[in-house]
Automatic annotation (TrEMBL):
This is Aromatic compound monooxygenase YhjG. It holds the Pfam family FAD_binding_3. Belongs to the PheA/TfdB FAD monooxygenase family. Transmembrane segments: none annotated. SUPFAM superfamilies: FAD/NAD(P)-binding domain, Thioredoxin-like. Its cofactor is FAD. InterPro entries: FAD-bd, FAD/NAD-bd_sf, RIFMO-like, Thioredoxin-like_sf. It comes from Diplogelasinospora grovesii. It comes from the Eukaryota.
Length: 543
């Protein structure tokens, strides 16, 4: 007897994000966590713009933003002197509602996700421990230790490990490895109040010398200080507030402030490891269960949440009989390269900032005051960095077996790319946006009439395209027509929107010719092309 379709082990941000996706798609699941309550200690501190976009598919990202602080960039100090500021708010990023990262404690992020999940009438089961996970050809059998010590055996179609570096799901998956190593450095961390500080309050600061201090303003007069080096972290005892104050005085500029009333202090090590595959038959891993790395760039939690969003709609499609099980192979095909890029990218940034080699640190501290201002002075170089940090640059163009681009389509957006946002108006003149339309569980078909009036497709033509697509797709599809002129009405199942000045047409590459964009439930383009390539879309959907 099957207990539910999916077992989610671990209810951190990654597990809760997966629960949200499954709830959205009306998949039966259980989500368990071994801890009786959520931790009040915050690990991750940044929600990146792409994650905000994806969470906003549940219609509530502004509620999260109101609890945090927008980060406008970073400041870099070498030998206590300001070398440069990395500004992210002057890059002209217009294809999103969320152009900047959000600095917010993981505690607040988890509370927000719990509130979203509660809207579906679902709560995490606590404290429940997965003692054993065994898969066979038909299902997964989980042995669960319930509150009070009672043992329950339950059956599921699939199990997903969102349970961190020591994942029981990964350990029980016989075909998964977790290769990597520990970093040599030791770190101390402190969340504390601060007074009389000259440090920037709208951005992260990195202070380099013979050691390293990272400084994060958290709001309400509280900051996080992470430090390494200076011979202090070699002491294995519990860190004291004076240790952090000494780090600030040694590496931060004069007037960095006085720490007091600490909220949390700890010592930790870091590892860099990754799995060889995100799937072993009926077992999947996501987040730290699949990849652990340094916190450089604030990528870890965000990548894990996006793992879950990628997997959630695919599990739903298979479980509801709308897709064959081979669809699940695309989870590893799409997310494994993202995890590998993350591991390599964060490792490079981390090694540059935290090296304990005295020769290297002296050379680094000599060169950075010359190199960093050159790097940050260029908008194109800053934009390139922002694409990585924001995770807007993640694309499945090359690796994915389930995306495509019509052969003669040369527009800026390709199959596998993130769906860019753009402003639209409905028939009543009310403002909406591309991403604002592409929400919920369905796939979305965007039909562009064309930006030039003499070549624009008629509404009848576009509705005929809609009908042909919906005949082939088993999943629910919502169709939206984009016209460069004012729409007269909403017709049938397709609503027409005005693309003022054909800006959105230009964003996608449909200024001169009408086109289509078929959008996945996770906000990525499944297929794109001109209407003259419609046969390629239909063949793609059949396959």
């Amino acid at each position: 007897m099957q207990d539910a379709d999916v077992l989610i082990v671990g209810a951190g941000p990654v597990g809760t994000a997966l629960a949200l996706e499954l709830a959205l798609h009306k998949v039966s699941f259980r989500i368990i966590d071994r801890d009786p309550v959520r931790s009040d200690k915050s690990r991750a501190l940044v929600v990146q713009p792409r994650t905000l976009e994806l969470l906003n598919r549940h219609g509530a990202a502004q509620g999260l933003i109101s609890r945090g602080r927008i980060a406008h960039g970073a400041a870099f100090f070498v030998n206590r002197k300001l070398v440069t500021k990395l500004n992210l708010d002057d890059l002209g990023t217009t294809d999103t509602e969320f152009p900047l990262p959000l600095m917010i404690s993981q505690v607040q992020t988890e509370h927000f996700l719990d509130e979203c999940l509660a809207k579906y009438g679902i709560r995490v089961e606590r404290p429940v421990v997965a003692k054993d996970i065994v898969q066979d050809d038909d299902a997964v059998t989980a042995t669960l230790e319930m509150p009070g010590g009672n043992i329950e055996t339950a059956r599921f179609k699939y199990a997903v490990g969102c349970d961190g570096a020591h994942s029981v799901v990964r350990h029980k998956a016989t075909n998964l490895t977790f290769e990597g190593a520990a970093y040599a450095q030791d770190f101390i961390l402190c969340d504390a109040h601060i007074r009389d500080s000259c440090m920037p309050q709208d951005r992260f600061s990195a202070c380099l010398g013979s050691g390293m201090v990272a400084f994060f303003p958290l709001g309400d007069g509280i900051v996080r200080v992470i430090a390494s080096g200076n011979n202090m972290t070699a002491d294995k005892g519990e860190p004291q507030l004076e240790h952090f104050q000494k780090f600030l005085e040694d590496f931060a500029p004069e007037g960095c402030g006085t720490l007091y009333d600490p909220v949390w202090m700890t010592r930790f090590h870091l590892h860099h490891r990754g799995v060889n595959n995100y799937r072993d038959r009926r077992l999947f891993v996501a987040g730290d269960a699949a990849h652990i790395h340094s916190p450089a760039g604030g990528q870890g939690m965000n990548t894990g949440i996006q793992d879950s969003i990628n997997l959630g709609w695919k599990l739903a499609a298979v479980l509801h009989g709308r897709a064959e099980e081979k669809l699940l192979e695309s989870y590893n095909a799409e997310r494994f390269p993202v995890g590998q890029t993350l591991l390599k990218g964060s490792d490079k940034m981390f090694s540059l900032g935290t090296s304990t080699n005295p020769i290297f640190t002296r050379l680094r501290n000599f060169l950075l005051p010359h190199i960093l201002p050159w790097v940050t002075a260029s908008p194109s170089r800053r934009l390139s960095m922002f694409q990585f940090l924001s995770e807007f640059g993640i694309t499945y163009r090359e690796e994915s077996p389930i995306v495509g681009t019509a052969r003669d389509f040369g527009g800026p957006v390709k199959g596998g790319d993130r769906l860019p946002d753009g402003k639209l108006k409905n028939a009543k003149g009310e403002e909406t946006s591309v991403q604002g339309l592409c929400v919920g569980a369905p796939h979305h078909l965007l039909l562009f009439a064309g930006g030039e009036e003499n070549t624009a497709a008629t509404t009848e033509t576009l509705e005929d395209v809609r009908d042909k697509v919906q005949e082939l797709v088993k999943s629910e599809v919502e169709t939206h027509i984009m016209a460069a002129t004012n729409p007269s009405s909403a017709t049938g199942e397709a609503t027409t929107y005005t693309d003022v000045d054909a800006t959105v047409h230009a964003q996608f590459g449909f200024t001169k010719s009408p086109g289509y964009v078929f959008v996945r439930p996770d906000g990525y383009v499944a297929h794109i092309g001109f209407l003259s390539n419609l046969g390629e879309l239909l063949a793609f959907l059949k396959a």
